[in-house]
């Protein structure tokens, strides 16, 4: 096959499919295949297959797609279980943004299939955020599945929550640095932090695999790490393995039509990797895979990660078949010092919101003026109370998504959605501010107003919602380490149905 026409990422000229009779092996059983022998003979580098069932554990996947993936005899099943995308609340509160029943459903299928096939199952960023409570929550689900299905396997549990006293010590040694646009971390700000996690790289996973773990569940992890760990352990190119992991971490979001709830498989060879969606209704194109390569990146050619960067300046995408894309040229460049990204949050108060709408064209035209009048009235009413609060109005249909960055300044909509958002030191004060702002806006008088019965329509009763604690990210820094595993202790246990025996 001639690859002389492959195109670098820099130009992003996407190529048409080759006409080729080459197809990937399709097998009919979940039982271990010849490819599983890669564990013993990695020096041959004949190829390794990584199955990604879903974009995030708990997002689900069609059984038909998963079964199709298992017929291809993968060497590992790996899944990313979390993200910072849902915001800082879940890290601070110690709860998952994914549903327990949905997570259990996915894990029950994955772990059972992995044990039958004799391949490892690897889970990263457990519980959505990867702190200690999130990891504990995920481990409990795994133990519950093992007890119900009478499964036996060796489980490795890798922690990622970092004591802030250790971060303080490293700060004083000059080993903590901010990531743009975060400021330098001060001791005062660190003290306010309620939870800090570190993004582990592939090394803690490789260590667990070396110790014979069949199921690995880890705290916060660099997204591609769970997919790249086994290939790198087996001697495959680190740059290609991490880039493949970058695509697989979101599964079929990198396909077209995209979906976060469908399976993708990656095939890694000595000098390239291929990705293929496992539903016949989807396909990978050079455009979809190249676009996902740029996903969540500030620089289109450089992707920083634990211990180095992924250099994409020579990356090439080729349409191998109508549904399969081949990628070459991605390189990993080790950094002089090994650093880990830290994520931490602090609590800033409590939130109450009220949801309303209006379709009065006069109110819509004067909405900015009305909001300022309501703000002034709230401030005046509580000026002697000593309350500290934040009051915001999100106006959907005008600039609710973009806020001040919204380029369209003049609107012609017939209705607006309004969210009144109050944050204060206590839940009671947040309730007070939100309630007063709502009632003030409800009966606010403005020029041209016709109806005096009320300006707002409320879709729900009660109209006010006590959201609870509010967190913000306050640690977005890197920490220098001597050993990539030093911040990530691993405990290995033997699971035998309802019985759990610590091994070390």
List keywords for this structure.
twelve-stranded mixed β-sheet; 504 residues; 13 helices
Describe the protein in words.
This protein is α+β, with helices and mostly antiparallel strands and 504 residues long. It has 13 helices and 21 strands.
What radius of gyration results from the CA coordinates? Answer: 26 Å
What's the average pLDDT? 91
Helix content: 25-40%
For the report, how would you describe the main beta sheet? 12 strands, mixed
Give the percentage of residues in beta strands.
25-35%
* Adjacency order of strands in the biggest sheet: 1-13-14-10-9-2-3-4-8-5-20-21
Structural class: alpha+beta
Number of domains: 2
List the uncertain runs: 1-29, 32-43
- Contiguous helical run count: 13
Distance between the termini: 50 Å
Which shape, going by the Cα principal axes?
globular
Secondary structure: number of strands: 21
Short summary:
With 504 residues, the chain is of the alpha+beta class. It has 13 helices and 21 strands.
Topology record:
Layout: E1 7-8, E2 48-52, H1 63-71, E3 76-80, H2 89-93, H3 100-117, E4 121-124, H4 132-149, E5 152-158, H5 164-172, E6 176-178, H6 187-192, E7 193-198, H7 203-210, E8 215-218, H8 225-233, H9 238-248, E9 264-268, E10 273-277, H10 286-293, E11 302-305, E12 308-311, E13 316-319, E14 325-328, E15 331-334, E16 338-358, H11 361-365, H12 367-381, E17 389-396, E18 416-424, H13 427-442, E19 464-481, E20 490-496, E21 499-502
Parallel strand pairs: 2-3, 3-4, 4-8, 5-8
Antiparallel strand pairs: 1-13, 2-9, 5-20, 6-19, 7-16, 9-10, 10-14, 11-12, 12-15, 13-14, 16-18, 16-19, 17-18, 20-21
Helix pairs in contact: 3-4, 7-8, 8-9, 12-13
């Amino acid at each position: 096959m001639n690859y002389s026409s492959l195109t670098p990422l820099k130009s992003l000229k996407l190529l048409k499919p080759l006409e080729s009779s080459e197809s990937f092996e399709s097998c009919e059983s979940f039982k271990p295949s010849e490819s599983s022998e890669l564990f013993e003979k990695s020096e041959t580098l004949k190829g390794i297959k990584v199955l990604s069932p879903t974009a995030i554990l708990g997002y689900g996947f069609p059984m038909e797609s998963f079964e199709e993936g298992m017929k291809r005899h993968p060497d590992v099943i790996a899944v990313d279980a979390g993200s910072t995308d849902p915001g800082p609340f879940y890290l601070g509160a110690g709860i998952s943004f994914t549903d327990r029943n949905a997570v259990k459903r996915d894990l029950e299928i994955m772990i059972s299939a992995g044990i039958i096939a004799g391949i490892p199952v690897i889970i990263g960023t457990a519980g959505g955020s990867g702190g200690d409570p999130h990891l504990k929550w995920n481990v409990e689900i795994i133990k519950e599945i093992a007890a119900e299905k009478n499964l036996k396997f060796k489980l490795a549990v890798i922690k990622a929550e970092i004591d802030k006293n250790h971060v303080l010590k490293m700060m004083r040694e000059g080993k903590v640095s901010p990531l743009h646009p975060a400021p330098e971390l001060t001791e005062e700000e660190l003290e306010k932090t309620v939870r800090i996690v570190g993004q582990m790289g592939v090394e803690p996973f490789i260590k667990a695999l070396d110790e014979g773990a069949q199921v690995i569940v880890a705290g916060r992890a660099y997204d591609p790490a769970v997919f790249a760990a086994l290939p790198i352990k087996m001697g495959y190119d680190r740059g290609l393995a991490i880039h493949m992991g970058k695509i697989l971490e979101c599964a079929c979001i990198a396909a077209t039509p995209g979906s976060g709830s469908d399976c993708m498989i990656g095939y890694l060879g000595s000098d390239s990797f291929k990705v293929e969606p496992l539903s016949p209704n989807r396909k990978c194109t050079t455009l979809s895979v190249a676009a996902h390569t740029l996903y969540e990146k500030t620089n289109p050619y450089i992707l920083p990660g634990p211990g180095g960067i992924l250099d994409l300046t020579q990356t090439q995408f080729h349409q191998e078949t109508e549904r399969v894309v081949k990628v070459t040229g991605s390189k990993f460049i080790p950094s002089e010092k090994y650093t880990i990204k830290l994520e931490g949050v602090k609590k800033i108060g409590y939130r109450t919101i009220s949801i309303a709408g209006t379709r009065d064209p006069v109110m819509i035209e004067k909405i900015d003026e009305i909001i300022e009048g309501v703000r002034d009235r709230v401030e005046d009413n509580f000026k002697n109370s000593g309350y500290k609060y934040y009051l915001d109005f999100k106006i959907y249909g005008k600039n609710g998504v973009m806020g001040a960055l919204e380029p369209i300044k003049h609107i012609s909509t017939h209705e607006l959605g309004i969210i009144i958002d109050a944050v204060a030191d206590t839940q009671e004060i947040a309730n007070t501010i939100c309630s007063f702002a709502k009632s003030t806006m409800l009966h606010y008088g403005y020029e041209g107003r016709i109806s005096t019965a009320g300006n707002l329509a409320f879709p729900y009763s009660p109209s006010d919602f006590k959201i609870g604690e509010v967190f913000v990210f306050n640690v977005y820094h890197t920490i220098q380490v001597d050993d990539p595993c030093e911040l990530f202790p691993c405990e290995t246990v033997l699971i035998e149905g309802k019985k759990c025996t610590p091994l070390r």
